[in-house]
Amino acid sequence: MKPAQKYPALAHRLVEVIVDLRREGMSVILPESAPQHSERMVDQIIVIDRGAITSIE
Questions:
Q1: How many CB atoms within 10 Å of residue 6?
Q2: What one-character DSSP code corresponds to residue 37?
Q3: Structural domain count of the chain
Q4: CA 4, CA 33: separation in Å to the nearest integer?
Q5: Which of 4, 21, 23, 42 has the fewest Cβ atoms within 10 angstroms?
Q6: pTM of the full predicted structure?
């Protein structure tokens, strides 16, 4: 079971914090193995595989 499924309140709060930081103009680096969960929070997705940038979306 994924942490977001086990702790939905924590996952929701994390999203709130990230959105608030972005509103304040702060950049956020979010390591994520399932980017579909964070796509609505970000301006850009950069895929890094074994230390090399493989994609910028």
A1: 9
A2: G
A3: 1
A4: 13
A5: 23
A6: 0.62
Judge whether 31 and 25 are in contact, CB under 8 Å: no
What is the residue whose two structure tokens read 């702060």?
Answer: 26
Q: Sorting pLDDT into bands at 50, 70 and 90, what band is 54?
A: very high
Range of the domain at 35: 3-56
Residue in 19, 47, 43 with CA at minimum distance from that of residue 32: 47
Q: How far apart are CA 13 and CA 20, in angstroms?
A: 11
Give the mean model confidence (pLDDT) for residues 42-56: 88
Residue 5 falls in which region: left (phi positive, over 0), alpha (psi -120 to 50) or beta:
alpha
Determine phi and psi for 52, rounding to 5 degrees.
-115, 135
- Side chain identity, residue 5: Q
